[in-house]
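Subgroup meeting minutes
Present: P.N., E.W., G.H.
Scribe: E.W.

1. P.N. recapped why we're keeping a running log of single-chain structure predictions: easier to compare across weeks, and new members can see raw inputs and outputs side by side.
2. G.H. added today's entry (463 aa).
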Amino acid sequence: MTQPTRIAGAPGLAMAALFGLVSGAGAQPPRPMSGSVRGIVVDSLLGNGPLANATIELVELGRATLSDARGVFRFDSVPGGRYTLSFTHATLSSIGFSPADRVIQLGAGIDISVTLATPNGASLYRRLCPGVPEPKTGMLLGTLADAASDAVIPGAEVKGEWTEITVSRTAAMTRRPRQVRATVDPNGRFQLCGIPSDVAVLVRATASGVTGQAIELRLEDRPFAIRRLTIDVADTTRPATARVSGKVTADGLPLGDAQVLVLGTDKVVKTGADGAFTLEGLKGGTQMIEARAIGYSRQRVQIEVRPAHEVTTTLALSRAATTMPELNVTARNRTRSEFEQRRLTNIGGYFLTREDIVRKGSIRTEDLFRGLAGITVEPVGINDYRIVSLRGGSGFSSVCEPSVFIDGLRIPLDPEAGLSLPVLPDDIEGIEIHQGPGSAPLQYRAMGQNCGVILIWTRRGAR
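Output recorded in log:
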């Protein structure tokens, strides 16, 4: 008879040995107890794409990381559990906006992917601006602070202004100024609701009886924009001591003889041969700087200037669809001779010589046309002007915009790019104003254009 096998030792050891034999037959490596959380931050408010440099926090673990240039982030060695993911961005924080948190459930040893996103501008607009919005309108979220101390200015007023143009069935044009207002809250934030998304809006702040410089805002058919504004609320008798310097470039090279101006002021300078410029005697606060040159599309940038401080910036211009040809010596002499001949023979039109231009002492070219019979100069936006002829129109209105030629090249004045003439009085040798096309030289009588013609001859083209 076979005797049962006995295992010496305590019963617990025997069971342990037996368990070891059984479990060892199909042993698996221990499962890791931590996993990872990776994902992407998507922005629908600021740029409609991945959001770089967003701060993502794994709240319960007190861990944070930044999204990379592709909006991607990752947390490794995360134990299984229930967690809250929050994220923010410097621009969003500046207006006090916090996107909604995301709750995730992470299993032990599991890797998961998540997408964090801001709400789209349309939904934010509906939430912050209740009521049924009008078509093609949006909102501006912003902050207002003192330019010197950076302290918030609660109770200040921020105003958005624009011109609404309507055309009746009889072709009569009506221009009606429109505006919306907002009050800055105790945290320095404001929101302007119902501003148009298809035209330029002038935004300016007023605090302690001081009104800051206007900035130009274009929503470009978007429902939402963010801006930080500053204003110098100190004693208005204090000298303006801020400076803005920099360079204007084109195709990566310095651009000389470009105009650089502060919108809404009489501050305007020309760049040197090295493209450099300096604007002095500026008030502190948010400013808009514009660079323009003949043959190039203008550029505007918003900057913040502190009293008694200097800000540097670079403005890069791109070539316009049409460029100004360089006149040779023969063409220059012929141009000046023809201008003088038309002026002296009194064939029609109004002429401004170099001496007349110097005598007027105008800063802007548009100012040279003020007071001339049949011509009016209308302000448009912050620093643009529209030259209108009161004669020669067609249909039900006698008002029209004359064709403008500079050194023989027609200059299209695009309302979207700015209506001001891209030349300074200092650079002009002579101007001809022809109320109708009949008195203008034949080559400048535009087909189908029954309005006037303005011929501007620069000193470059005439000397």
